[in-house]
Every structure is written in C-alpha cells, then in structure tokens.
Amino acid sequence: MLSSTPWKRWLLLAIAVVLVAIYLFPLYWMYVTALKTNTETFANPPTLWPHHAELKVTRVWNDMGMGSFIQNSLVIACGTVTLVVLFGTGCAYGLARVRSVWMDVALFLVLMLQVLPASLMVTPIFVAFSQLGLLSWPRTGTILATAANKLPLYIVLVRAAFTQVPRELEEAALVDGNSRIGAFLSISVPLARNGILVSAILIFLQALGEYVYSRSLITDRAYQPATVGLQFFVGPNASDWTGIMTFAAIYVTPILIIFVLLQRRIVSGLTSGALK
Amino acid sequence: MTLQIELAGIQKYYGGYHALRGIDIAIPKGQFVALVGPSGCGKSTLLRTIAGLETITSGAIRIKGEDITRQPPRLRDIAMVFQSYALYPHMTVEKNLTYSLRLKGVPKAEARRKAEEIAEITGLGQLLDRYPRELSGGQRQRVAMGRAIIRNPKAFLFDEPLSNLDAALRVHMRAEVRKLHNSLGATSVYVTHDQIEAMTMADHVVVMRAGVIEQQGAPLDLYDRPVNRFVAGFIGSPAMNFIDGIVTEAGDRVRLTLPGDPIVSFAGHRPAGEAVTVGLRPEHLNVVSETQTGNTLRLPVSLVEQTGSMTYVVTETEPMLTIAANMSRAILTAKSIDVQIDPGHVYLFDRTSEAALQSL
Amino acid sequence: MLRFNRVFRDGGGFDSALVLLALAYLVFFSAFPLIYNLVISFQSVDLFTIATFDRPFVGLENYRDIVNDPLFWPVVRNTILFVGVSVVFQLAIGLALALFFRLDFPGATWLRGLFLAGWIMPGLVVGAIWGWLLAGDFGVVNWLIQSLGLTQQKIFWLSDPSISIYSVIIANVWLGVPFNMILLSVGLAAIPADVYEAAELDGATRLQRFFTITLPMMRAQLGAVISLGIIFTLQQFDLFAALTQGGPSNASNVLQYWSWELAFREYRIGHGSVVSVFMILVVIFVATAYVRSTRHEHVV
C-alpha cells in the first residue's frame, strides 16, 4: 500500500465517503421517497429529508398485492438455488480435480453458456416449453430456465473454491479407507463450504431479481414474481412514486441486508472465480 | 521369507510419457525401504501406485501375496504420511487420528481410547482437542504419523514427510521415525530426495532415475559398490569427483586429465588405453604433509570451506575436485595440497555407458 | 455391481458422472434452445403454429424481413451506441475509483465494497429508481441540474426521443461501475509493490509510473474487464423494461429488447429468433475472445 501522512489519510477518507454517498444516492432517494407523503413527493423544490415521515408498508403490501409477488419470487429463487446447487456442486468439483482435454472442453462449454443473455434465450425456450406443455406449470418452467442460466456462474465460482482444497487431503481420506463419494462429502465439501454457501446466496439473490423468464413464461398474475409486479406499476405513465418506491424498498431491503452482512466474502468469491 | 510388498514389472504411462519403466522391488516384512532419486525420477509416482492413488499401465502389486493391483486405496490397508501432512483442517487432532477407525465403524469409546494411546506414543498428550492450525510443524508431523500408526496397517508409505521441517528437527525426527518403525515391527516405504536421509534410515535403498531403478541394496553396498556413475555421484556427500582418464600400458594405472597428467594406480586390471571416468570420493583423498611415494597428487587450491569438524578444499583444476580433510590450520593458507589415494578406493566407469568397470 | 463400484465408487467415473450430469442439464436447457433458436429463425412461427412440430420452413425469408425492416438499422445503431458509451464510462469511472481506493486510508476496503450494493440489486428495481430520479416534472435530477444552472428547461429524459437512450446508458453505467472497479482493484493489487518502488528509485514520477507500469501490467485485466463489460451490457434487458421499453417510438430500442418485443409483443416469433441469432453470434464472439485471453493468462 502507498503510505501517506495522517491528515492526508483522513482527507482521503472524507473524499471516499463523499464518493460512496454520491454513488448510493439513488438508494437513499428510494428510501426517502418511500417515507414521504404523496404531496411532499411532488414538492418543488424536492425535500432531501421527509418532513412528515410515514410508513406505508401495509397499505402498499395490500394494495399492490405484494404478498403473492414476494411469495412467487421466493419460490422461484429457492427452486433455482436448489437445482443449481444440486447439479453445479459436483460438476464444479469434477472440473476442479481432473485435468484432461475433455474437462477443458467441458469447462469451455460452461464458460460459453455463462454469457448467453436470458433475453435472447427466452424465445426458443418459450416455444419449446409450450410444445412440451411445460407452460401449464409456469413457475416450474421459469425455475428450470433460470437454473440453466445461473448454473454456469455457480460452477465457475464453486470450482474456484474447490481448487483451494488441497488434493492431498482427499487422497489421505482415500488411503484412510474412504470411497470417492465419501471423501467428496466428508472432506472436500466441508472445506469448500464457504465458497459454496456464498455462491449459492449470490445465485439466490440474482434469482430473486430475475425478470425476463418470469415476464415471458408466466402469464397468470397469481404466479408472477415481484420484478414483474413492479414493472406493472412503473412504465411511462407511472404516478404513484411513493407507492412504487415503497414496493422497491420492501423488496430490496432484505437483499441489501444479506449483501452488507456477506459483503467481504461475496467480493472475494466473485473476484477469485471471475478471473482465475 | 514372506514378502510384505511385491512390485513386479510395473509400467506407467501418462499419455505418451513413460513415467515408470519396469520396476521390480521385493520388500520383506519389517524392512524399511527408501526410494531416492532426483525430482522427477518417478519415486513419488511409484509410492502413489502402491497406495492406489495412481493406476498402473501394466505389472502387478502384491501385498502379503495378495494381488491388489486393481484395488482402490480404501481396500489396500495401507497408511500414508504425506509431504504436506494432509491433516483434515476441519477436524480436531482426535478426529484426524480416528478418521479411518470411524470409517470402519469402530465404536466411539474405543476410538477415543486408541487415540489417547497413540497420542501417548507420539507425544501428542494434551493436544487431542486442538485443530491442526493450532499446532507447530513438528506437532503436525506427529499427528500425520499417528494417523498412520493407529490403523495398524500392512505397510506405511512416507512421501518426503520431513522436508517441511527445519534442519534440526529433521535430524531429530529421522531417528524418531526409525525408532517407531522398529518398535511397531512395521514395513515402510519412504520417499526422499535427500540421500543422507535414505542412507541413515533405510535397510534397503532404491535409487531411481527417469522411471528406472538404477540400483538397489543395503546403504553401504550402494556406497561401496555403485553400479554406475549416476549412483556413485548420487550417494555420498559431498558428491564423488569425476575425472576423465586413460588406462596406461601396465593396465593397473590410469593417467588423469589433470595438470601434469598424474598417474594413479587402482586395484585390479583393465585393458591398456581404455578411456574411462575415474571416480574419487572427497573423503578418500587423504591429505598428506609431504610428497610420499606412490599414488599421490599435488593439487592447486582454489577455495577452502570450513564446517568446523571438516574442511573442504576445492581445487583450482579442470574439473574442480573437492577434498574432505580434517581440520588443519595449515590448509587454510596453503597454495597447493598433496593428497594420497588408496588404490582400492579408485572407481572406474565406462565413459559412454557410465557403468562401473569390473577388474579383469 | 463390482464394475459399478470400480468406476463410480473408486474410479475416475465419479468425476465424469458429476460433470456429465450438470452438462446434460445445460445441454438440455441451454445448448438445445440455442440450436432450436436457429431452427425457428428459418420457420414461420405464429401463435397458431407454436404448439405444433411441423411448421413451414421459409428459408431466409425471416432474415430478409428483418434486415429490410425500417427499424433494423436504427436499432443496430442504438445497440452499438449503448454498448460503446456504457463500456467506456464504466471502465473510466471504474478504473478511477479502483485507483482511488488503492490509496492508504482507514476503511478503504469496506467503503469500496459498498459500491457493490448497486450491482447486487435487481435490474428492474434499479430501473424503477432511475425512472423516478429522471422523471420529467418531479425528478430530482432535473431539479439538481436546474438549480446548478446547467439548463433552464426541464429535460425529458425518458420521453424525449433524442435523449431516452442516454437515460438507459446512465442507469447501466451506474449498474456496471462496481463490477469494473472490483475486478480492476484485483488487478491493481496483483502488481507487486516492489516494482513501484524500483520505478520510484529509477526516478519515475507518479504519472510516469501509471503509464509505464500500471497500464502495461494491467493489460490482460483490462482486456478481461472490457470483454465482460460488453457481455453484461449486451445482456442488459431489465433496465429497458423498467425505463423506456424501447421508446418513445423505438428511439431507445436495442437488439436484445427488440428481439423480445418481436416474439412476445407482436408474436413474430420467427423474426424475434433472427435478431436473437445475430446477437448470440456477437456475444459468443466476444466471449471466445475473453475465454481465450484468460486461458492464455494461465499458461504464462
């Protein structure tokens, strides 16, 4: 690190705080607007701090039907994470352990599939699912498609975690009398636990914010997640901005809390997986 | 004689790379065998094939007469101590020690009792509830050993287990490992790149190079009768000096390609005019005070290295020779040095095949 | 059973089975749709033929239709603009922040991490928030630039056809900056301090050190970050859905959103697939360059 004198360090800290504040202003504005009354929201000049703060959580929750939206979001996110962890963990392990031409091909395939945009994949998936009759279970269809979209990222991140586990530990377990599966479950998985957990949470958070597949595959309001619900209220003619910001705040606050708690681990997991 | 481990005609290919080329070793029960050689010679690969961590292309591995070539590691009943110790970082010392017992379904109380017993033997007394990260290097080493001992396996495999320890501890652990081997009546295969470790610990030393066994036998046999230049150079410290030479008319002397073309005599006879490589161990070059008759050389001094007990003199010749002398202050300032050689300690090797030459 | 044991319980079959299981899933739900997309792009597909398997093949007709569509070139232009401007600003701001947060002051790492809060948010929510910030009459951004005296008139960020694409770009840059910054920080941290010390002893100024050491040593990293930036920007869909929906009158439409609109709004599924095929080719091209560059990295 480049060292500097004490007063300079505090000056730098002050600048850093200002930079963070500017960057996070949109988030601040979301919360402030959510707390304002309707009249104050449209006041000119806008108030930077609500004069008559009021919580509209229950009203918005009921009026906008958030219960069903949030529940669907959770169902889709949980389903996606389950599939991704189930299929991805073993694959990541295999790709981390075995060095061969075939594994390189498999890894290349995974890396390529990681970049396919959901908005471009959704058309053939929609056609195929409607032919298979999968659209009768729209949430299942969305989960299957979202899992396929997120699986490569999870594999890449968890593979990095497995490569951190020394191979010799597993070999010691084999010599000690364990089978491959036994050594995998009792040595490798517990030791890569942090990486697996953080990656799974990351996938969960991303699946919670999934939009394209839900919007395209789910037509019934009752099964749509919060993103689709929110989109319904925004759009060019949006007017109930306090309501929309309250909706947004209720929706993302848990995500932000999880993020702040796991910030350091998510950052390190991300950087080790993305570039190695 | 019952053989505990038998390796017969082992061949191993990694794709096109021929890693092990026809390895045959027979190890009787209770023997301590050292596999030694430069890095990349295949010694670790060989050890891993015994453990079952690597498959072999052809050949057979037998333990107590039973062919286990195709068995997975867990069915071989062999314990291994890894170079990195490979202690399970998420388990306490006790759990590390008893991992294999728990896999076999040994009851908890009995496993605990055994762990305590092993801790006693290996001097881990109060550390059973610690985690590996809380232990020193030497303690980790002991846990790794304990984990192997607790199973009472058919054989112990060691993969350079002392290379991560500092020099003093390494010397201490050498003796301890050997003592443990004796008291357990165990059969051990020990991989090392350090020939001193191999010489001091093993009953039987196997010298490997490029996937081939160059020579195997008792440590002193290898030292006294190396079969080729490689083994001669590898065993012994400091390493043997090699000088090109031509056998003289008489057939029992050799003219060295050193300044002044000195002639030394050797035990036995070779054809006159034969081009040979002469091997002289540093410790066989006896420093003498004045020119004596027979088998002496006068050599210019380039450098004197002192270790305290021994003094190594490096000569200013081409090739450079190393001489091991007893401490003597006179040497420190000498411009040249006189050494005498016992004809019985002159080794001759064929220049092209590098094989040791027998007396005719 | 014995054979099974040998291969799966103790042998290399274990790894292969685990990898193949996931690959099978990916092939079924990712690779197959990819190919199916190509098939559909040669077919005439509408709401009535969607569920049947024998749809008429129309050859390159869909491709002709799309290229001749009056929207095609404006949308291509928008896409290039969107990607180009977004990536440049994400990279510039990200690099500046990464350099700043490398300085030594208390809480640097933690404060830097807070930027990722933007990245973790659902794109649609980010879009909704920016929609409110940029709102024409009551948006705080308009108030801010007016009170700073930058303009007299209100700017109609979302409904002015010449500006709406830039609104999406602003939101997208906001989303992309944290990721750029973190990846570049990793690259900066990987440059050993003694190289800088050596350069300083050799008499290089701060600026010279940046151009002769930092930039050259970051080349691979910058390449990776730019490729990833292009890929993520091409994936961006949610912001369009939340902010402009390609409007007004397609002034901010880009290929990835247009493809979806064709298929799901106008039910011209064959045409949507054609646009999709174009885009996927571009994405795969960029991704190959990225993967090859990182693989190359490995060898060195």
Overview features:
heterotrimer; B: 360 residues; alpha+beta; Rossmann fold; 2 domains; six-stranded mixed beta sheet; five-stranded antiparallel beta sheet; 20 strands; elongated; C: 300 residues; mainly alpha; MetI-like fold; 15 helices
Report on the architecture of this protein.
The complex is a heterotrimer of chains A (276), B (360) and C (300). The relative contact order of chain A is 0.13. The model of chain A has no long low-confidence stretch (mean pLDDT 87). Chain A is mainly α. Chain A is 78% helix and 0% strand. Chain A folds into two domains: 1-54, no CATH class; 65-275, MetI-like (MetI-like fold, Orthogonal Bundle). Chain B has 360 residues and is α+β, with helices and mostly antiparallel strands. Chain B folds into two domains: 3-234, 3-Layer(aba) Sandwich (Rossmann fold), CATH 3.40.50.300; 241-350, no CATH class. Chain B has helices spanning 43-51, 93-104, 108-122, 137-149, 167-184, 195-201, 219-224, 229-234, 329-333; strands at 3-14, 17-28, 32-36, 58-63, 66-67, 78-81, 155-159, 188-192, 204-209, 212-217, 241-247, 253-256, 263-265, 275-280, 285-288, 296-306, 310-315, 322-326, 336-341, 347-350. In chain B, the strands form four sheets. Chain B has a six-stranded mixed sheet, sandwiched between helices. A five-stranded antiparallel sheet of chain B has the order 13-12-11-14-20. In chain B, helix 2 packs across helix 3 (108-122) and helix 3 packs across helix 4 (137-149). The model of chain B has no long low-confidence stretch (mean pLDDT 90). Chain C has 300 residues and is an all-alpha fold. Chain C folds into two domains: 1-33; 58-123 and 164-299, MetI-like fold. Chain C starts with a helix and ends with a helix. The mean pLDDT of chain C is 86. Chains in contact: A-B, A-C, B-C. The interface between A and C is large, with 108 and 114 residues.
Short précis:
Chain A is 78% helix and 0% strand. Chain A has helices at residues 6-35, 38-41, 57-63, 66-97, 101-114, 118-132, 138-163, 167-175, 180-191, 193-208, 212-217, 226-233, 241-275.
Largest beta sheet: strand ordering of chain B = 6-7-8-3-9-10
Would you list the SSEs of chain B in sequence order as H and E?
A: EEEHEEEHHHEHEHEEHHEEEEEEEEHEE
Proportion of residues in extended strands of chain B: 25-35%
Give the averaged pLDDT of chain C, no decimals: 86
Q: How big is the Rg of chain C? A: 24 Å
Question: What's the CATH superfamily of the largest domain in chain C, by name?
Answer: MetI-like
